[in-house]
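Whiteboard transcription, Tuesday session. T.W. wrote the structure tokens on the left side:
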């Protein structure tokens, strides 16, 4: 079995360190005061043996080994535990003509279940396999659930899902087609989050709630590593990211931090966080430095509709460290961007994902982004996951 360079966990708030098998979820010190309805305190960060990664990576690069071997160097779980379903290695290519000449797309809608979430789910299933646990529970607005259902099916494991009954039909159908146990929650995503915590508190299973299990961040990190590799071992100037709980944002940042610590990359890409107007807790946090829940998230961008972003604290650090920015977009702007993206590039993205283009338009207008700067739009979810939303725009 190939070794991993994963060394230990470190709390993102108090800095306390923990061994790999000492715990699974939040920092036990910082999370003592946790109550549902607030961002998670003490989310853990995986620390690696960066010197060894740097050495191994240089050898790989000079031997012209493939991208998968490069990505595997940064994995927190041995590759032998991954189920057979191929995830990631999605296309990265120039889409000049959409908004400005130096625009690139990273199309993660092409993952097996149709969303970016497969990156986190596959790693969580690998971790469950390593620990000998055959049941995984998760709260979701829809995509994390359909993704976990697919990845668990690939390993023959049971997935238990808590999702709002109001989630788009295709996502709910996906969950059941993949054979997962679906508990439809009458309330919001935030209610589902709590229900999944209650469930894992009383069952022998692994909890995949986003940010609550720190490997969700490690799984999502692979997209940043791929962008670096596919871009000829260079960080782009900007990466535009749709933000709900703030895990994708933190994870893309973590990818470049890991690359930097390994001596492979000298610059960090600036991150543009895009949020729906009514679901803007992280944007407000970045603007004011004070955290407050988004009181009434209500948007067609269901995958980024959240009152209490679980990873708000780490997301704010990622924005500050990367010299990034955050912006709100309206549902009308999202609808227009969805059609623009589809009609100018042939990529049909779900509303949450189309929000990135709406945010990019504004950032160009505000002169936050210069048209000469290399900018990557992260396409996170497939348009066919919510055809009702698209149909309503036509
Ligand atoms: C989950 C999701 C997001 C937001 O990711 P967070 O980590 O919650 O910020 C964006 N787009 C799509 C399609 C998603 O499924
Ligand atoms: Zn702590």
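and on the right, the sequence the group agreed on:
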């Amino acid at each position: 079995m190939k070794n991993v360079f994963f060394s230990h966990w470190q709390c993102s708030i108090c800095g306390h360190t923990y061994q790999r098998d000492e715990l699974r979820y939040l920092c036990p010190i910082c999370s003592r005061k946790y109550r549902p309805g607030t961002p998670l305190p003490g989310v853990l960060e995986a620390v690696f043996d960066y010197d060894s990664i740097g050495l191994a990576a240089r050898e790989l690069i000079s031997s012209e080994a493939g991208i998968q071997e490069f990505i595997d160097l940064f994995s927190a779980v041995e590759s032998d535990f991954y189920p057979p379903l191929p995830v990631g290695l999605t296309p990265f290519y120039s889409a000049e003509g959409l908004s400005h000449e130096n625009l690139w797309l990273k199309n993660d809608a092409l993952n097996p279940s149709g969303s970016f979430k497969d990156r986190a789910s596959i790693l969580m299933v690998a971790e469950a396999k390593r620990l000998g646990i055959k049941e995984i529970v998760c709260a979701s607005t829809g995509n994390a659930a359909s993704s976990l259902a697919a990845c668990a099916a690939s390993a023959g494991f049971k997935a238990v899902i808590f999702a709002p009954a109001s989630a788009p039909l295709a996502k709910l159908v996906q969950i059941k087609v993949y054979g997962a146990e679906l508990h439809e929650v009458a309330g919001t995503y935030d209610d589902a989050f709590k229900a999944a915590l209650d469930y894992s508190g009383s069952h022998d299973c692994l909890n995949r709630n986003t940010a609550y299990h720190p490997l969700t961040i490690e799984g999502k990190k692979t997209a940043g590593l791929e962008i670096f590799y596919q871009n000829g071992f260079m960080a782009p100037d900007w990466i535009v990211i749709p933000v709900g709980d703030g895990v994708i944002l933190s994870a893309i940042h973590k990818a470049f931090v890991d690359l930097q610590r390994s001596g492979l990359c000298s610059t960090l890409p600036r991150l543009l966080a895009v949020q729906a107007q009514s679901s803007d807790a992280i944007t407000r946090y970045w603007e004011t430095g004070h955290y407050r829940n988004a009181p009434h998230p209500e948007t067609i961008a269901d995958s980024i509709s959240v009152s209490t972003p679980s990873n708000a604290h780490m997301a704010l650090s990622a924005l500050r460290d990367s010299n990034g920015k955050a912006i709100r977009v309206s549902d009308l702007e999202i609808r227009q961007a969805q059609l623009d993206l589809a009609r100018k590039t042939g990529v049909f993205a779900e509303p949450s994902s189309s929000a990135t283009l709406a945010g990019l338009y504004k950032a160009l207008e505000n002169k936050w982004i210069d048209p000469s700067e290399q900018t990557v739009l992260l396409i996170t979810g497939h348009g066919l996951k919510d055809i009702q939303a698209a149909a309503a725009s036509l």
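Someone added at the bottom: The chain has a mean pLDDT of 96.
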